[in-house]
Automatic annotation (TrEMBL):
<dbReference type="Pfam" id="PF11104">
    <property type="entry name" value="PilM_2"/>
</dbReference>
<protein>
    <submittedName>
        <fullName>Tfp pilus assembly protein, ATPase PilM-like protein</fullName>
    </submittedName>
</protein>
<dbReference type="InterPro" id="IPR005883">
    <property type="entry name" value="PilM"/>
</dbReference>
<dbReference type="InterPro" id="IPR050696">
    <property type="entry name" value="FtsA/MreB"/>
</dbReference>
Amino acid sequence: MNLFQQTNQKRHAFIIKDHVIRYIGSKQPDLLQITQIKERYLPLGIVVNGQIEDMTTFVTILTECVEEWKLKRQRIQFCLPQQHTIIRTHFIDGTIPDEEVKGQLYLDLGESLLLPFDDPIFDFKVIGMHDGQKEVLLFASRESVLNQYIDAFSEVHLKPNAADLSTLSAYRLFFENGQVQTGAYVIQVQIDAMVTTITIFKDHHPLFLSTILSELDQEGWSLTGEGDVTRLTWTKEEEEMEEAIEECVREVEKVMNFYQFNVLKGEGEMGQMLLCGDHPYLTQFEAAFSERLMLEIVGLSEQTKNDAPVRYYDAQGLVLKKEVYR
């Protein structure tokens, strides 16, 4: 996703989720040039389902992060909440010039283009021509949610110069590691503590995006720490976690079956699963998928070329983003 353009070398990558703010600083879009790796866990209720519900407290916490991490007036990159983003293909008249595509998308809104929110901001990429129609890969996010984050960053004197999606940043890291199967449909399952995101890629293009909120009681998570390391720990019954893992596997199977038979009409199938996330039970999720799915499952092992833990997977991918506004 490329809401901004041109190039700049320094990277200040922010990932904001319901439960945490993560940050990686780097001299260049290169994981060997990382200078800072930081995180700050958020109390429940500050960010809910990707929306900032308590702006005052959020800005207070963000101010403390900016001061502690010495980031005031820096240009930053961040990821939009995926719960409020749609990815799909859309067809328009092939005679429409590329520079007029965005205007056409707004004209189609509410008619041939239906979205679950009425304040979209668009990004797009033309990916082909079919029978005189341009095939447009469309990214639509809620402008009101985007503006929440822009306003919060402005309050603490940070200057966003690139917006991305966590799922695209994660895929970028897999690709950088040489782990992506080419020529096949690839399903990426991103399991974070509060939400699971399922994305289907083909030829490095995201074609489908779905998010599933965790049904676990979020009060069951607590923070434990030793030294400078803080971890999320599940404190309720293990049976609840086992049920959540099983339900996640079922939901992923449903998405795979829907896409294979309703979208691809049985003429294609998934060749690979990319598995990532910050969920403390990610290893157990991987074992459950391995038991149920006849599919190559690829995960992100602990990095050896930098000090970033695996839970910073999307921040690392965001660091690698080349296109940012100067």
